[in-house]
Write a structure and sequence with these properties.
Blueprint (H helix, E strand, L loop, with lengths): L21 E4 L2 E4 L10 E2 L9 E2 L2 E2 L13 H13 L6 E10 L5 E8 L6 E4 L4 E3 L3 E10 L6 E11 L2 E2 L4 E7 L7 E5 L3 E6 L4 E9 L5 E7 L4 E2 L4 E3 L4 E8 L6 E2 L4 E5 L3 E2 L2 E2 L2 E5 L5 E5 L2 E7 L6 E5 L8 E2 L5 E3 L2 E7 L6 E5 L1
Parallel strand pairs: 2-3, 14-23, 15-25
Antiparallel strand pairs: 1-2, 4-5, 6-10, 7-9, 7-11, 8-10, 11-12, 11-13, 14-16, 16-20, 17-19, 17-22, 18-20, 21-25, 22-24, 26-27, 27-31, 28-29, 28-32, 30-31
Amino acid sequence: MGCAHDRGQPDTGAYSYSYGYVFQSGGNTYGDIMSYPPVGATRIPYFSNPNVLYGGVPTGISESQPTTSANTALTMNNTASTVAGFRSAVLSASVVTISNSSASQITVSSISAETPAPWLSISPQGSFSVNANSAQNVTVQVDYGLAPSGYSNVRLLVVTNGVSIPGGIAVIVDNDTPPPTRVISLSGNLAFGNVTVGTSAQSTLTIANNGNSTLTVNSISYPSGFSGNWSGTIPQGDSHNVSVTFSPISAINYGGNNLVVNSDATSGTGSRAISGVGVSRPNLSISKQGGDLVFTWPANVSGFTLEYTTNLPATSWTSNPILPVIVGQNYTVTNPITDGNKFFRLTK
């Protein structure tokens, strides 16, 4: 189904992420079903999947990491319809009866298609005899995997006692081509959480086509605050990653409506929940406690760094050497008071 062994092996899979996975957890080495783990490692009955944990550790790496990704679960989801639709030898057989109503034995020397039809087989094909007032059944089998699409009308010529039977035997085959399908599915973590007003955060939306024909994406519609349009085609069994950006301009909750992928999909789900929270830029508070300066800012806004400079206007800023700790609902940094001027700021 398009899955390869782990990246330490020479084989490749259907997609750039179609690899098994070997990983560490708690000082031990583990390998999934498709991997070749080293001697002494434990094999686990899992396919690689970054969304499934084993011992608290993801059992794969997201497809958004092109050089290290390992996600055979997504590979099998994307190739399932192709595998299910494969039909190399769908056979159907009918029986034709050749009757001899005469008073003497007849010999059928051959039964053959008037025009080439390699998808037909006949048994017995000749030569055989039919006794007086008796009959012989002949099996005509059709291989629909080889038969041409649509209707086919083939005449079988039957030669008995050296003479071709008038009209022969008509074989009519209806081999309808499966209708085109474009089955869309969406994946990706689009719950952005808290993002500071005036900044942006990115995540990846994966659009997959699990049908048997090419999917055309015309556009992507987003609720306010989100962006990341893309249009193009996705071949059957393939997928495309779209970078989605959340850029809050107010300290409010965003989302409420799903994003919608506008396409010519015949089935599947073309919408997905998306959300984020715009939070105000934190205020930096400074207080003196004994021989220390204590800096605090709200802990519900992450990603900010305390920096300082010795002169204004500043030509450069330096990260504060003491890292923040969470005390109550605030990030807190305690610096000893030193000689000289220092000017502080929060930056992201």
